Amino acid sequence: MTDEKTFTTNTAIRYTPEFKQTLIDLHEKGHSLKKLHEEYGLSLDTIRKWVQVATVIAIDHQWYCLGSRLCHVMP
């Protein structure tokens, strides 16, 4: 875990978008949040938030997003 950290401010660690996406992809492939936490040392809440922000759901043929991710509404 060396290149995924971009910089630190105070005690906050910032991770690259690529690293976040890697963990999101692993979770989508079936890795549990607990396994990712144990393997990469991040808190469960941090990983859970990243996954939630990246989650898109469809309701009544329209796309909605959880978190702050921008999504398009499907006609």
Task: Considering the chains and any ligands shown, give keywords for the structure.
single chain; Homeodomain-like_sf; two-stranded antiparallel ribbon; globular; 3 helices; WH-like_DNA-bd_sf; 75 residues; Transposase
Compose a concise summary of this entry:
The chain is of the alpha+beta class. The chain is built from three helices and four strands. It comes from Lacticaseibacillus paracasei NRIC 0644.
How would you characterize the overall build of this protein?
It is a single chain. This protein has helices at 17-28, 33-40, 44-54, and strands at 5-9, 12-15, 56-59, 62-65. By secondary structure, it is α+β, with helices and mostly antiparallel strands. The chain has one domain (1-74). The strands form two sheets. Strands 1-2 form a two-stranded antiparallel ribbon. Strands 3-4 form a two-stranded antiparallel sheet. A hairpin with a 2-residue loop joins strand 1 (5-9) and strand 2. Helix 1 packs across helix 3. InterPro entries: Homeodomain-like_sf, WH-like_DNA-bd_sf. This is Transposase. It comes from Lacticaseibacillus paracasei NRIC 0644.
